[in-house]
Amino acid sequence: MPLQDEATMFWKHLDFPHPLPHCSGKRVFLGHTPQPGGNVLDSGYFVCIDTYCFGGGYLTAIEPATGETIQTDRHGHARRTPMRTIADRFGKATRFLGSKIQSLTRPKS
């Protein structure tokens, strides 16, 4: 990074064709290349998290160790994918039913 000028490091968009993996083998997280669909561009060795917030998309944060993605629109509303909504509801139902089953199977004192 010390060999790159500031304009390239902070403002240059990702070129196409995409660059090759870095010689270190590390994943690169970058922005300033808007993804109009609002989805993170993950090539495996680089991850573009500019999900077009300024154009009506989402502001995106990623936990690099786990890959967990959190997105909000410019009003602060969380983006929820259909599968995440289903998983959350299933988890709540499972916890509820589990507590009911435990209360039914506990010996009465």
TrEMBL record:
<protein>
    <submittedName>
        <fullName>Serine/threonine protein phosphatase</fullName>
    </submittedName>
</protein>
<dbReference type="InterPro" id="IPR029052">
    <property type="entry name" value="Metallo-depent_PP-like"/>
</dbReference>
